[in-house]
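Sharing a chain and its predicted structure for anyone who wants a worked example. Both blocks are below, sequence first, tokens second.
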Amino acid sequence: MTGRVLVAGIGNIFLADDGFGVSVAQRLAREELPPYVKLMDIGIRGVHLAYELLEDYELAILIDAMPLGAEPGTVKLVEPDPEPADPDVPPDAHRMDPQAVFDYLASLGGTSARVLIVGCQPGTIAEEIGLSPAVEAAVDEAVQLVRELVADPARTRQLKRSA
């Protein structure tokens, strides 16, 4: 792949399964990724993610817990529409879901690279540290999916929009 790729784990480790993206990013940090990949543990720093997306990336892979209407621990690849829903609404640093990040990015005058989300259906977002067993079991699947996405650019470009 000739372009740069951002891989960003998103979530709050103090809200159980919401820490899924952070757990996947931490696992990926122990592996050797291609030199064109920048891995970040974004956590709850959505504003920071918006600023990072101002950089020149060909692809951004976000990893996050998200409602998929499936059993807890289900992993799905989603391609969101990065067009801003309302770029005139100021960001709320405590509620920076991917759409809010895209909105803030647009308010900064930026446009997003192609974005894919490796999403996982949470089981609980209670105030506790640690993933539920079903979501913890999904971390390996998500790590493997991210590996495949960054290693096979032809497959990544051919993916059809799923959201």
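Comments welcome. The mean pLDDT is 85.
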